[in-house]
Please model this.
Amino acid sequence: MSLIAREIDKIIEPQEVMEGAGVRLRRSIGTHTLDHLDPFLLLDNFGSDNPDDYVAGFPLHPHRGIETVTYMLAGVVNHKDTLGNSGSIGAGDVQWMTAGGGIMHEEMPQPRPEGNYGFQLWVNLPAKLKMSKPRYQDIRASQIPVVTAGGGARVRVIAGGAGGVTGPVTGIAADPVYLDVDAPPHSSFTHEIERGHSAFSYVFEGEGRFGGSDSEAGTRVSATRLAVWGDGDYVKVVTTDSPVRFLLISGKPLNEPIARYGPFVMNTRAEIEGALRDLREGRFVWSESRKD
Ligand code: FE2
Model:
């Protein structure tokens, strides 16, 4: 059986939004154009050298039913949560936070000369894990393996496997792959993705040809765009005179109903109302003793 090369299904131009207490973001999943890409619910790209665009941050807020994944390219975000975690996420670090049955946290970007650049991805949880115990994986840049793949691309492996190594994020229901791929000019990058899994690439520097099985095929995608991959067994990206840097993210679709309201993503409206009621009654945060 021969392997099928994935092609780009659609290209999405990120939309400017304001979030939190006034943070300027570019959103490409979680908009009218692309509500979700099961199991992914949201993708935000923050990036500015002007502290006015980000210092207002995200003061204390709740999450339930999802995972929020922060990957920093530059700058520092201070955080604190009801699990008792606090600290800073700096350049190259990842915070993979499983909100489960309820967490409150704050995420506050710090003014820095290098600005504040990075991504936040929301990954859905299956119904059976929506009310689970919250979990938090704090991954330092130094723990993330960097491999040079066969075609010359340099790959930071955050989750899943590439180039013979496995990323440090483990035990995630969506079985995700999360790679940061930096392909120099005149290189190629090939990566197998399980058939049926959703996949996208967020191109944030340069340009390349995405999809197909040979260097003449594929679709030209340049920064800053989200490219959604169609189904198949592998993806291929080829560069000519320009380098390209992009995230390659994939995951197993849940195929479950989605009821979303701000920071809560559940399966039914009744569960959303339950989250709002728990919040009002001061019983939102997950605890061993809570009866759900
Ligand atoms: Fe948050």
Observations:
- The first strand starts at residue 8 and ends at 12.
